[in-house]
């Protein structure tokens, strides 16, 4: 490929990064996250595309996404809506079908995951040719914002219990800010059956089982700016069920 | 081998050794002090593991980073983004 002298670094590496953004009622957040993605990808110069998978949000997320597509171009913003709310795993499968990158980044569209970490993920991946790079709130400069003591205690307790029972070789199991080689994500998604928090955990546990290599990058997790974040009894019960299922089956 | 089986294997191995020494199953006629040390061992192990767990989780909760800076930075960028997007013609 011919390179112009003005083009930013990293443009010609041949790698392309597809960001999958599953959304449901994220009308407020979607423009902001897309703006941040464009900003940081633009500065670092990596080749990218953003795939918005909207599950029929009643708040008009899709309409906002269409406007963003007009602003940033159809080669950068791809819309792959679905008729109704389906699982996260199927959203990734659906999005991946249309992804043209050789790497896939998955993240939440609610601004809790900041795109500024993506260049760090990419550097980390290149450093060790890792099959997947996971953001971690539990190491180095990683951390959270907006959590009270109860939430921190549950999070740390659940993480400790999981580390003891599963010894997964990664510090943040329930986080969903990750970079995968596309082939790796495809083979993992096929195998994972859990829902919710446990889905992310199963992805990384199965990755270890299949001898994929995992790199980690500390991230700051800023809990939902708009909208509500939930952690109730139901979430805890389903987490424990999922944990025990993985304990008995992997 | 699943994690469950690994655990069962580990626990039964430790349990077997413990029973051997405590009840002298192989008639090794070990000194009495061996048995006296061995029989409360599972309880000691359990209690120390419990203490270790509590201390670890407690320490990690206490040292959990609060990312005030990151939140501030994000708020600033949200303002910037909204302005820029409005200029580009986005109707919120």
Automatic annotation (TrEMBL), chain A:
Pathway: Protein modification; protein glycosylation. It holds the Pfam family Glycos_transf_2. Its main location: endoplasmic reticulum. Transfers mannose from GDP-mannose to dolichol monophosphate to form dolichol phosphate mannose (Dol-P-Man) which is the mannosyl donor in pathways leading to N-glycosylation, glycosyl phosphatidylinositol membrane anchoring, and O-mannosylation of proteins; catalytic subunit of the dolichol-phosphate mannose (DPM) synthase complex. Component of the dolichol-phosphate mannose (DPM) synthase complex. GO terms for molecular function: dolichyl-phosphate beta-D-mannosyltransferase activity; metal ion binding. GO terms for cellular component: endoplasmic reticulum membrane. It catalyses: a di-trans,poly-cis-dolichyl phosphate + GDP-alpha-D-mannose = a di-trans,poly-cis-dolichyl beta-D-mannosyl phosphate + GDP. One of its GO terms (biological process) is protein O-linked glycosylation via mannose. Belongs to the glycosyltransferase 2 family. It comes from Seriola dumerili. It is found in: Endoplasmic reticulum. Its cofactor is Mg(2+); Mn(2+); Ca(2+). This is Dolichol-phosphate mannosyltransferase subunit 1. Residues 18-187 form the Glycosyltransferase 2-like domain. Its EC number is 2.4.1.83. Keywords: Endoplasmic reticulum, Glycosyltransferase, Magnesium, Manganese, Metal-binding, Transferase.
UniProtKB/TrEMBL annotation, chain B:
Keywords: Coiled coil, Endoplasmic reticulum, Membrane, Transmembrane, Transmembrane helix. This is Dolichol-phosphate mannosyltransferase subunit 3. Residues 64-91 form a coiled coil. InterPro entries: DPM3. The chain crosses the membrane at residues 43-62. GO terms for cellular component: dolichol-phosphate-mannose synthase complex; endoplasmic reticulum membrane. Stabilizer subunit of the dolichol-phosphate mannose (DPM) synthase complex; tethers catalytic subunit to the ER. It is found in: Endoplasmic reticulum membrane. Pathway: Protein modification; protein glycosylation. Belongs to the DPM3 family. It holds the Pfam family DPM3. The keyword Lyase does not apply. Its main location: endoplasmic reticulum. It comes from Seriola dumerili. GO terms for biological process: GPI anchor biosynthetic process; muscle structure development. It is a multi-pass membrane protein. Component of the dolichol-phosphate mannose (DPM) synthase complex.
């Amino acid at each position: 490929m011919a390179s112009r002298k003005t083009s930013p670094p990293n443009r010609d590496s041949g790698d392309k990064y597809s960001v999958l953004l599953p959304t449901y009622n994220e009308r407020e957040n979607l423009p902001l996250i897309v703006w941040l993605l464009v900003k940081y990808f633009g500065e670092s110069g990596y080749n990218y595309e953003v795939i918005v998978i909207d599950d029929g949000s009643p708040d008009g997320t899709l309409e906002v996404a269409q406007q963003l597509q007009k602003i940033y171009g159809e080669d950068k913003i791809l819309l792959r809506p679905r008729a109704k709310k389906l699982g996260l795993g199927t959203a990734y499968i659906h999005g991946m079908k249309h992804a043209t990158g050789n790497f896939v980044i998955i993240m939440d569209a609610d601004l809790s995951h900041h795109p500024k970490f993506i260049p760090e993920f990419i550097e980390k991946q290149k450093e060790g040719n890792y099959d997947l790079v996971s953001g971690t709130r539990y190491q180095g400069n990683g951390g959270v914002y907006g959590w009270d003591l109860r939430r921190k205690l549950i999070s740390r307790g659940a993480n400790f219990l999981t580390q003891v029972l599963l010894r997964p070789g990664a510090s943040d199991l329930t986080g969903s800010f990750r970079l995968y080689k596309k082939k790796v994500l495809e083979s993992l998604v096929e195998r994972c059956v859990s829902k919710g928090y446990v889905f992310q955990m199963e992805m990384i546990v199965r990755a270890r089982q299949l001898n994929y290599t995992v790199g980690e990058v500390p991230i700051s997790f800023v809990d939902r700016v708009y909208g509500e974040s939930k952690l109730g009894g139901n979430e805890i019960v389903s987490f424990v069920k999922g944990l025990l299922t993985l304990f008995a089956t992997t | 081998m699943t994690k469950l089986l690994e655990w069962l294997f580990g626990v039964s191995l430790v349990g077997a050794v413990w029973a051997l020494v405590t009840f002298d199953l192989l008639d090794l006629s070990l000194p009495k002090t061996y048995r006296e040390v061995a029989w409360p061992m599972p309880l000691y192990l359990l209690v120390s593991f419990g203490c270790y767990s509590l201390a670890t989780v407690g320490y990690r909760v206490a040292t959990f980073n609060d990312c005030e800076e990151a939140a501030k930075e994000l708020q600033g960028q949200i303002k910037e983004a909204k302005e820029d997007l409005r200029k580009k013609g986005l109707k919120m």
